[in-house]
Description:
The complex is a heterotrimer. By secondary structure, chain A is mostly beta strands. Chain A has one helix spanning 37-43, and strands at 4-5, 19-24, 27-32, 48-51, 57-59, 71-74, 77-81, 92-94. In chain A, strand 2 (19-24) and strand 3 (27-32) form a beta hairpin. In chain A, 49% of the residues are buried. By secondary structure, chain B is an alpha/beta fold. Chain B has 2 domains: 2-66 and 149-219 and 322-373, FAD/NAD(P)-binding domain, CATH 3.50.50.60; 89-142 and 221-319, 2-Layer Sandwich (D-Amino Acid Oxidase, Chain A, domain 2). In chain B, the strands form 4 sheets. Chain B has an 8-stranded mixed beta sheet, with helices on both faces. Chain B is globular. In chain C, a hairpin with a 4-residue loop joins strand 22 and strand 23 (398-399). The radius of gyration of chain C is 22 Å and the shape is globular. The chains are: A mainly beta, B alpha/beta, C alpha/beta. Chains in contact: A-B, A-C, B-C. Chains B and C meet through helix 6, strand 13, helix 9 and strand 17 of B and helix 12, strand 24 and helix 14 of C. Strand 17 (308-319) of chain B pairs antiparallel with strand 24 of chain C, so a sheet runs across the interface.
Amino acid sequence: MSPRLLRADADPVGRHDTPLTVTVNGEPLAGVAGQTVAGVLLASGRRSWRAGPSGAPRGVFCGIGVCFDCLVTVNGERDVRACRRRAADGDVVTTQSREPGDAR
Amino acid sequence: MRVVVLGAGIVGAACARELARRGLAVTVLDRGGPAAATTAHGEGNVLVSDKGPGPELELARLSRRLWPEILAEHEAPPADAVEWDAKGGIVVATTDAGARELARFADSQRAAGITADTLDAAALAEAEPHVTRDVALAVHYPEDAQVQPSGAAAFLLGGALRAGAELRTGCEVLGAVTSGGRLTAVRTSAGTIEADAFVNATGPWSGEVAARLGAPVDVRPRRGEVLVTTPQPPLVFHKVYDADYVGAVGSGAEELQASAVVESTRAGTILLGSSRRRVGFDDRLRPEVLSVIARKALRLFPCLAGVPVMRAYGGFRPYVPDHLPVIGPDPRLPGLWHAGGHEGAGIGLSPGTALLLADLLTGRAPQIDPAPFRVDRPAVLFEGDDQ
Amino acid sequence: MTARTRRHVAVVGAGPAGLAAAAAALRAGARVTLVDAAERPGGQYHRMLPEQYRAARPERLHHGWAAFDRLRRHVLGHPRCAWWAESSVWSLERPGPGDETAPRVHVVRGPADGAGRERLVLDPDALVLAPGAHDRVLPFPGWDLPGVFTAGAAQALAKGERVVIGDRVVVAGAGPFLLPVAASLLEAGSTVLEVLEANPAATVLRGWGRRPWELASQAGKAGELAEYTALLARHRVPYRTGRAVIEARGDGRVEEVVTARLRADWSVVSGTERIVAVDAVCVGHGFTPQLELPLAAGCALREGFVQVDGDQRTTAPAVLAAGEITGIAGAPAARVEGLVAGWAAGGGDAAAPEARAARRRRDRARAFAARLAAAHPIGDGWPGWLRPETVVCRCEETTYGALCRAADAPASAAARAVKLGTRAGLGPCQARICGPSVAELLARRSPPPDLAAGGHRPATPHHRPVAQPIRLGELARPPKENL
């Protein structure tokens, strides 16, 4: 199985979710208002999205903004910590690497 | 002949290598570790572009010729760590007044044999697609290069050690032992060390070390700060700087001098310099200095506005009031030699400095005129006027 | 007294320590600016659900919710408190020698890592630093595979977002924090296969003493830890001591881990390896204090933590410290340290009965910290888990072999030269993750006379003058001052 968001109706904290949509490399992803960008990515089943210097896959490691493994580009801003940035409806997320073709 | 080199920064390393390869018994002392201070806190400039005709340019040309020769002497991995990159420099003037000044400066350099090609708008856009279009004049200096300074110092020091030199770290010079007016040994935190010659290559601490040995020289620290961005895809391809840089290098002002110097490293980070402040050994970081550096860099590369700075570092550069290195014997204290005072150019100038010093020390005819670098000149022996 | 003449205390960090400090400074009569990078207070311990989830029963995820909720409402709603959410301190500017004023606090405020954040500067009369700590994770082969999380990440995602990281999970490392992490995973519906404490039972018991829960009760941790233990038992999750995850394997993501029995020094007992199929693994080997701000402020360290006196004053003028940066002791200790620090920072009377009481409670909490450190040390043998090709610096992918080669060459062995040569610690995380491990590996390899060359600071993996990334466009703009 992959990472997932606990279903609201099964969550003992009693959530009242508001859906939102972001795109990741052009693909629409459904999320919930309040999730971080990393939360949306994980909940969609993705474990990794950034490529390290050698191309090695990276996703969330520390989850609290310390390790910078989860960096993504959000609405054209590079190097955003996905685990710290709250997703907003309509956010355009693109994944990052250090490849030359990756320049803006 | 036994030689003790004081300081294991890049200048000390280059001198030790040159002297050891000539068969001298060399010991390198450093109170910290090798290449840990000024050498490791700079950008790794190997520049001819920022120097006007004169003795420093001659030393720069000699050094620029020596670098590839030195690197070619060893096989890949060690030389690879030097990250030698003959990327060339581009100097940009954004105002008409600046353009006139830059045009005059480049003419004088060409007359001295430096390649300085004026770039038209299309050529500049081709060479640096992301640089501002708001350019009055751009000059390309293909001879400018860059190294990773601490890797370069380690490479030179490694060469010294292979040629038989000895390295002693954690060893601080405390004072002199003289005999008949001649320096015969240094007292250090690790005991007294005798030799026939002592080379003061302690960079910004040269003044203090020389004073401890009883022959003070007026070399002072000037602080420079550099910003480092997160790794980026390639955006900057040369060393690009604004024409003010030359003025800041040549200035002796106490207050902040800043000019934009922008270049990328092999790791993908972009280095943004540079500031020059005379604040003694005060190592406090001043956010407003960083802010000025950022403003100036964005004037050259507006597209970098969204790029994060992840680190800043500052180093102390050995500053001499007349902006010339100090290379040669100390006439006041036979046995003491100096190799320092390069300010922000020590990385690039280290091979030429080492060659000149070694020639003088071993009695060979030097390849460039050593007189302008001599120790007994007013700017070095007398306290400056604190301009 | 007007707002301008009233004593102004800036508190950095709104976790248990910072919130308590803010409350105590307010009580002492000061005006307070409380600064935190997150949108909501609570820090990692009381990580709150996002407001947008509109959760009816958030208390279900928290110990001591009622007290926290009261405190948070009191502080944030206080007329003398300015609450700066989403505000990162990117630099502290020390005054010159002999100047006794507090450092200037440079802040960027706006969405995390946003490009158009506002630059602000605070000039407080006193500064309380309570930035907290993050998980320390030692490197091991495969720790850079997706699906390997820090223990804190697993908890932050479960508690703060209701995201479950996997279904078959091993929790491993050292320290009592592994228990609440396992509990969070269980609560969110994961299967926790086992919880592995690397230290052998003998070390853990010796450290805690014969009646660990009784000791813990002095710091208010007893009930909490006992509950976690009971929860693990209910779910039949084995808690094994003297065992660790020494390798993670998989194709592009973690698929299995290798666990092994360890000696007291954490060297592997060969032949005890077991392979466990997992889809996620959570690892934490204690905590790393976030020391960049105290170091920028000029605070002296003692044994790796900020040195403080009886009033939580650091060696830097007008700078106080509370919470994990003064020693890892958990939330209850952080709270009383915050109270002591905030009271002193706000100019409260040190002889007041409540101040004396807070200091006594703080001293007991410190004893707890000492027991914790003794019960869950990091063993010297962990580098034995590494192979030459094991990545040590995740950002720059510096391998153990490359580090050893650099450290063994005398010409490049100085710590800074090794870093520049191998790039270990020079990537985006700025050595937050690998710094302490790299420093330990190098110190062991070639005990270097890496003295602070005059004017240059001694090498510390925590020296980060730019404490948080700031974009060039933000840096270039002049800040707002006199706030």
